[in-house]
Every structure is written in C-alpha cells, then in structure tokens.
Design a protein that fits this description.
This protein is α+β, with helices and mostly antiparallel strands. The chain has a single domain (about 10-100), classed as Orthogonal Bundle (Arc Repressor Mutant, subunit A), CATH 1.10.10.10. Helix content is about 40%, strand content about 20%. The protein has 5 helices and 6 strands. It has helices spanning about 15-20, 25-35, 50-65, 80-85, 90-100; strands spanning about 40, 45, 65-70, 75-80, 110, 115-120. The strands form 2 sheets. Strands 1-4-3 form a 3-stranded antiparallel sheet, with helices on one face. Helix 1 runs antiparallel to helix 3 (about 50-65). The longest helix is centred in the middle third of the chain and has 14 residues, at about 50-65. The radius of gyration is 14 Å and the shape is globular. This is Helix-turn-helix transcriptional regulator.
Amino acid sequence: MRQVRHPERDEITFIAVVAAFSDPIRVGLLRVLADGRERQWGELRAPVAKSTLSHHLRVLRDAGVTRTRQEGTRCYVELRREDLDARFPGLVDAVLHGAEGDDVGADVGVVDNASTSRPAG
C-alpha cells in the first residue's frame, strides 16, 4: 500500500463528510467503526466486492472520516471520531441515530473468529 494522505482536522469539510455518508455501505462502515475499535480491513464484511469495499474505505479516508494505517501487509482503519466531533459537533451521532432508525447499513459488519458474521451497531 502506498503512503496515503489524511486530511488534517482543519481540512475536513462538511460537504466531503456529508458526501461520504451518502452511501449505505459507507454508513454501515461508520456504524461498525463507531465502537471506537480499530479494524483490520479483512475483518470488515459488506455485500460488495473487495475492490468496491476498498473504494468505499478510500472515500471515507479522503473525506477525513477514517484514518488508515499499514502494518506490514495488513491495513487497519479507525473512525476519526474526535476530529469529526470537533469540526461538526453532533453530526456523527445524528447520522448514527438516523441510520439505526432506518436500518441503513445494517448489512455491513465484521467477521468473527468463527468465520460467521454479526450485524453492525
């Protein structure tokens, strides 16, 4: 994986974040990452091809929603909750609340150790 650039906190824009939340898969990823845990990319489960999942993760990263780090051949992703809350207080909570109420992104989750899935959020 090439070295990726993450926007600084003050470079995160409202339009980029809202645009990143405009897709149900990305909202599902937000729901999964909202628990504050860093996730290995291979743990993430979504009803899309791996290349499409990578695209969604890149959109979230480029918008400043997530931070990605590489450790050897493994990639990890985490929600930039502190940065988002500082820039747009209450936005993440509002998106999460709306997503849960409408069940948006519920088909995105993590794969557990037994290779079965559990729902996000």
